[in-house]
Amino acid sequence: MLIAVMLPLGNAQGQNANGKFDATESGRQLDRISRDLDLRRHDRDQLKDWAQNVQRTKRDASECVTAAQQNLDKANKDLETLGAPIKGEPADVTQQRRALKRQISDDEKRIASCKLLVLRSDDIASRISAIQQQILAERLFATGPTVSELVQDYWQQPEVWYAAGRTAFLKNTGLQLLSTNHLLTLVALLAIGVAVGIWLRRRIGTRLCLRRETEGAATPTLFGRIGMCLLTLFGHYLPYFLATSVAAVYFYFITGALTHAPLISVIAYGLPVYFLLIAAIRFFLDPFPPAAPLHSLPTDVAKSLGRRLRVLVLLIFLAYLLFSTLLTQGLPETAVELLRAVIGAVFILNLIWIVWLLGRIPRLAHTLGLRSGLILVLAASVVAEWLGYRNLSLYLLRAILGTIVALGITLLLGRLVRELFDVIDSTRHPWQQWLHQRLGLKSGQKIPGLIWLRLVAFILLWGGFVLATLRIWGLSEASLQQLAAMADQGFAVGSLRIIPTKILLGVVGLIVFLTVNSWFKGRLEQRWLPKTRMDRGAREALVAISGYTGVALAIVIALAVAGMDFSNLAIIAGALSVGIGFGLQNIVNNFVSGLILLFERPVKTGDWVVVGNTEGYVRRISIRSTQIQTFDRADVIVPNSELISNQVTNWMLRDPRGRVRVPIGVAYGSDTQLVKEILLKLANEHPLVVTDKSTPQPMVLFRGFGDSSLDFELRCFISNIDKRLTVISDLNFGIDQAFRENNVEIPFPQRDLHVRNWPPSGRPPAPPPDADD
Q: Under a CB-based contact definition with an 8 Å cutoff, are residues 276 and 242 in contact?
């Protein structure tokens, strides 16, 4: 027999009177726990308390090691600063050196003591966990009478069972407590509850119809469908809820003063919960429109699953009535165990039926192995119950049901969280558009960092599911405390220490800072910089640099929160230098070139540039490459290094104005002065040609005498070089029309052909065999 002994532990954390960690006292506490474990003076509750105390001691000892190590490092650094002792040094320096040496010695002793406490805490926690597992195993494999023995006991004395059952029913039902006035009052209250529920159900149904008419054919979101489905179900079951709730309250006033509630009160208390579970089953498997697509199951499968689950709820309700009241206390123990075996067998058979029905769902058709394993475990639970291993049967059944419920809750929460993120990332509603505008996002652009928030939510959900599953399947309290300590204090992988909680906090910090950086960029680009006198290129460069700087700061802060040791950056930098030397030269070259482009700005967004054989407009300058859109609307990605090291023609670097040249030839004998006047007039009359003397005036040059024409060239400056081709086209149209009106001929090449010998027949002579074509 286990004896519980309360230890005189004093402060559970091993702290002294000043509230500081006391390694000596914590060691004494561990000694007491270890001694009582050796003497086997404990029970389950005591083991749980000890496990918590041991984990607290380990946590405090780990913090002690960290703090003492920091003090030791500082003392060593100060001692190194003082240097080696020299003859004739000041007395205060010598005294300070001795004090530092004493501090170093004390810190080293404290670190050793605290590390020893950590090791002892781990050892004792393992012992506690092993004892808890042993106790669990002994309890699970405890045997009782088999079902065949229970049936034989019934056949040997059926009259005893009948008399005991009749006495227990008459004594514990509570019907004798109800008078005629009580019954009449109960009937009246039930009638009022049903009438009010029906009236409210009609009102809710009318409002839902009006809402559908106002919404039209618009498809509601998942949350909208859930809300309408809940309202519909609430309205449908409202008469039952009101009637049973009124009955529960009424029986509470009648029998609430009794030590043990009679059967009629237990029924009244359980009926509202029963109808609530039935409504939940209909909500998930057989919902009313418009929430029918919630489960996306085939209709026959949903109906079959709904029926099986309703049978399970009924069996649970019956077991609640039988085993949670005084009804079974008047029966023989063998009768109670036989009832439990029968109800448990029917319950598990329904569960097996449900697991088999899951195979008819298309998404779960490939889970035959998993479903077969569940069926085998459930069948083993029935066999264990009938063979007398009732604790083992209850354990298996509770574990399976708990795992299924935890999985269902996790999947439901996962879908709701995913829908919530999709709603936030969408722009269908005004508030979503307002949120995107406040964050400085363009139309169709996703919220930055939201993918990381999805990842954190996914990790938390499924991490919670794993912990819940382990706890359901009997994970000891000590093991659970060890997992919690591992998540909080981390674990070592070589020389690297990984702390999951800090990593999650770092990811959340990264999300927050990326979102703030996006908001700052949007405000800077749309609100603040347009009010300054900076040109567009300078504004875009400043926005890009601030964006990259914000991302870098967010990463650094997130790494700091995650517990990154920046003293290892030298090693990382060395590894990067080796990588750059072997194959990352181009990437680093483009990166540095991108920084030069952002600071020097030889090329800006919107400039018309010519890079090699590529000509077009600069659309985007990133940290590695530049996007150029050609006149054919093709996007060409040019590495930044080509813009820095090669020759680049920028038509719009300092001034959007530029010069155009229009060559033209006229026939020999034309009036050259008239040609000059026509060309100058056309240039001066064009609205884009600059004539305000801020640039050279339009001019006509007589370039020379061609083979068949007199060659002229019209030169003029336009206000926007971006319109260069349009201006040349307009001038060519005007020149052609003006030359026609003034009879100025534009010649074309002509050649005179001289034939020496022409045969009389009119055929040209055949060329000699060696003549060229």
A: no
- The alpha carbon torsion through 640, 641, 647, 652 (nearest 10 deg) reads 20
308-322 per-residue burial string, b: 16 or more CB within 10 A, e: under 16:
bbbbbbebbbeebeb
Edge-to-edge strand order for the sheet containing 635-639? Answer: 635-639, 625-630, 614-621, 608-611, 648-650
Burial grade of 161 (CB within 10 A; 0-12, 13-18, 19 or more) = middle
Of 341, 471, 362, 450, the closest CA to residue 406 belongs to 471
Residues 6+ apart with CB under 8 A from 436: 427, 445, 447
Residue 700, pLDDT score: 92
Give the CA distances from residue 325 to residues 181, 392, 521, 620, 721, in Å, rounded to whole numbers and listed in that order. 25, 24, 66, 76, 94
Q: Tell me, what amino acid is at 538?
A: A
What radius of gyration, in Å, describes the C-alpha atoms of the chain? 44
In the numeric block, the tokens 């494999």 are attached to 141
pLDDT at 252: 76
Query: Could you give the 3-state DSSP secondary structure of residue 597?
Result: helix
The phi, psi pair for 21, rounded to 5°, reads -70, 130
Q: In the structure encoding, which two tokens stand for residue 175, read together?
A: 């019907």
Q: Splitting the chain (773 residues) into consecutive groups of 10 residues, what average pLDDT does each group show?
A: 32 49 81 83 77 83 85 86 80 85 88 88 84 79 76 68 62 68 80 80 57 46 59 69 80 70 76 81 61 61 81 84 62 72 84 82 76 85 82 82 83 80 71 66 64 78 84 68 66 66 76 76 74 70 76 79 65 62 68 74 81 85 83 86 83 80 90 91 90 86 88 91 88 92 82 67 56 44
pLDDT 10s digits, 502-531: 777 777 777 777 777 777 777 777 777 777
User: Computed from CA positions of residues 670, 674, 675, 676, in that sequence, does the dihedral angle turn out positive or negative?
Assistant: positive
SS3 for 233-261, per residue? HHHHHHHHHHHHHHHHHHHHHHHCCCCCC
- Whether the CB-CB separation of 306 and 357 falls below 8 Å is answered with no
611 forms beta bridges with 614, 648
Instruction: Say how many residues make up the chain.
Output: 773
CB proximity list for 9: less than 8 A, separation 6 or greater: 29, 32, 53
Extract the tokens encoding 51.
Answer: 């496990």
Instruction: Write phi, then psi, for 40 (nearest 5 degrees).
Output: 60, 40
- Residues near 508 by beta carbon (within 8 Å), at least 6 away in sequence: 453, 456
Close Cβ partners of 737 (under 8 Å, ≥ 6 residues apart): none
Predicted local confidence at residue 291, as pLDDT: 45
- What the block records as the tokens of 694 is 């801020």
Cβ neighbors of 309 (< 8 A, separation 6 or more) are 281, 285, 354
Of 360, 396, 361, the closest CA to residue 381 belongs to 396
3-state secondary structure of 374: helix
Q: How far apart are CA 313 and CA 275, in angstroms?
A: 10
Q: Rounded to an integer, what distance in angstroms lies between the CA atom of residue 664 and that of residue 666?
A: 7
As a whole number of angstroms, the distance between CA 679 and CA 690 comes to 15
Phi then psi for residue 188, to 5 deg, are: -65, -45
pLDDT for the residue 423: 73
> Is the distance from CB of 244 to CB of 275 less than 8 angstroms?
yes
Burial 63-97 (b: 16+ CB within 10 A, else e): ebbeebeebbeebeeebeeeeeeeeeeeeeeeeeb
H or E stretch at 527: none
Distance CA 744, CA 739 (A): 5
**How confident is the model at residue 6, as a pLDDT?**
31
Rounded distance between C-alpha atoms, residue 670 and residue 425, angstroms: 71
Give the integer Cα–Cα distance in Å for 150 and 703: 123
How far apart CA 22 and CA 11 sit, in angstroms, is 10
pLDDT at 132: 78
Q: Please say whether the beta carbons of 731 and 693 come within 8 A.
A: no
Distance of CA 221 to the CA centre of its chain: 20
